[in-house]
């Protein structure tokens, strides 16, 4: 396995990961990393705790966040399909703009989650919203937590099955949540002092190169700063494609595993940047 210097994409219990923010730096150190970014979905709540633990373990810390946005605005087909996630790096954890947006996003999640539970109950699946809240433990409650409840109650065997049958875009209990537009997400990251990076471009599900190029061009118009070239979902040919796209458009290059904890097969440090690429990223981010 290649050894990376920096893993710039991971989640904690502040969103849908299973390790607390303070535990990540030690895991990172043990895996041979020298730098990490914490990128919880829609929240900066874990950043201070993770930063403190990074200082103790002599790990360079990049404060981050991962915002979900509506893909329809950038897709050539204008459909709300696929996944559009924007990573913010070098953000100020206490940014007032961010805190305000977090409140709004939490409300939108709550409404969506309650409707998913309603749908599930209509389908004869005996779950309650309270059980989902309890399962999540933290403030950011997502479909992976609903999946855990379904597994614990024996309705499905795996998270994968929970998304296939119920929670995914084609699932029987799928409910879209109010999301930021890509413009809002990028603006928010910039207002928090960060750089905006398109996460796992493969998940936009735009398989034709010119379609993805169309989406990236739109995002660049909105202020996109970089592309996540290396990610656990990207094979060698995807990495080369995104690397070329980033170079052609003069975008910053990032990479990370998207580690969510031991319950998912993705390992910490299994994707990332080598030292030179990380230093280039930091130097360019400073200039923006
Ligand atoms: P939410 O933020 O509640 O919309 O849930 C999105 C999260 O669910 C993603 O960040 C992943 O962690 C997880 N997820 C999405 N699709 C799947 C899938 N097909 N299988 C397993 N986990 C998934
Ligand atoms: Fe997640
Ligand atoms: Fe993501
Ligand atoms: Zn992620």
Hetero groups in this structure are: adenosine monophosphate, fe (iii) ion, zinc ion
Under the CATH scheme, the architecture of the largest domain is Alpha-Beta Barrel
| Percent of residues in beta strands | 5-15%
CATH fold assignment of the largest domain: TIM Barrel
CATH domain class of the largest domain? Alpha Beta
What's the short story on this structure?
The protein is 42% helix and 13% strand.
Structural account:
With 288 residues, the protein is an alpha/beta fold. The chain folds into 2 domains: 6-95 and 182-287, Metal-dependent hydrolases (TIM Barrel, Alpha-Beta Barrel); 104-167, DNA polymerase, domain 1, CATH 1.10.150. The chain has 10 helices and 7 strands. It has helices at 24-30, 47-56, 96-122, 129-136, 143-152, 159-167, 182-191, 209-221, 236-248, 275-287, and strands spanning 6-7, 35-38, 60-69, 84-89, 195-198, 226-231, 252-256. A 7-stranded mixed β-sheet has the order 1-2-3-4-5-6-7. β6, α9 and β7 (252-256) form a beta-alpha-beta unit. α4 packs across α5 (143-152) and α5 (143-152) crosses α6 (159-167). The chain is globular and about 55 Å long. The mean pLDDT is 96. Bound molecules: adenosine monophosphate, fe (iii) ion (2 copies) and zinc ion. Residues 9, 11, 39, 66, 258 line the site of zinc ion.
